Amino acid sequence: TGSQLREIFDKINNLLSGKSVQSGGRTVSVTQHPQGLDFVHYKLAEKFVNQGEEEVASHHEAAFPIAVVASGIWEIHPRVGDLILAHLHKKCPYSVPFYPAFKDGTSLEDYQRMLGYQVKDSKIEQQDNFLKRMSGMIRLYAAIIQLQWPYGNRQGTHPHGLNHGWRWLAQMLNMEPLADVTATLLFDFLEVCGNALMKQYQVQFWKMMLLIREDYFPRIEAITSSGQMGSLMRFKQFLEKCLHQKEIPLPKGSLQPSFWRS
Question: What pTM does this model have?
Fold first, then answer.
């Protein structure tokens, strides 16, 4: 509910502001240790990204409540925002977007890790699990850039707003596509913040959508094997439907005004 989310936000904000907060049956404050605030900044940012990787990956609609808190904390405590981006870019290079190139002398395991795969005991994770985690993080990012915390006296400009989403999309389309990954993440991104981008950029946005369908989609198709068709077809259906209806629907789970009265 909206009231629960406010409680969570206030608790995090109070902790970062140096006030005492109840946690796990104890009273804690960042002033108890000289590096207390640095530590909390770092761990909090890491936790937000982990929630994208785990919670949002399994429940897409969770992106919105998590993102609105992250965005609000980012606005008041910019250092947390810098660290959210740092954790996100490390775990999911596609959020930059960046496709790490293989360099001589790099072991295969290290290279897989650079690409975002989890490697345990020389075993690389399954592709569907990898894509699910990347999707969760991209969906969280796509939700953060369009949401602002609705309370508080600042209500200034968004600390990392939709212009970053527009830039991300443009950069993705300037890169050679990767099988499976590109179609999946473009779909995730546009499903979550396509509606917001459409409202903000209007004619320019539809030009971008046409470019994707006419020029970029065939390039993804050309490198996609028969076993990787699922993500491609889902993306194609989404594109066709949006272009046909000249509309990108609001994403499922987006926070309506009524949510804040709950």
Answer: 0.96
DSSP track, 113-147: HHTT--EETTEEPPHHHHHHHHHHHHHHHHHHTT-
Interatomic CA distance for residues 173 and 240, integer angstroms: 18
User: If we measure between CA atoms, which residue out of 160, 162, 145, 166 comes closest to residue 77?
Assistant: 160
Q: Where are the domains of the chain?
A: 2-261
Helices 2-16, 63-76: axis angle to 10 degrees equals 30
Name the architecture of domain 2-261: Alpha Horseshoe (1.25)
Question: Percentage of residues in the chain with pLDDT exceeding 90?
Answer: 94
Range with the poorest average pLDDT among 115-119, 148-152, 234-238: 148-152
Rounded distance, CA 231 to CA 27, Å?
A: 48
With a CB cutoff of 8 Å and minimum separation 6, the contacts of 223 are 177, 178, 179
What is the rounded distance in angstroms from the CA atom of residue 217 to the CA atom of residue 211? 9
The mean pLDDT value of the chain amounts to: 95
Mean pLDDT over residues 87-103, rounded? 95
Provide the β-strand partners of residue 123.
Answer: 120
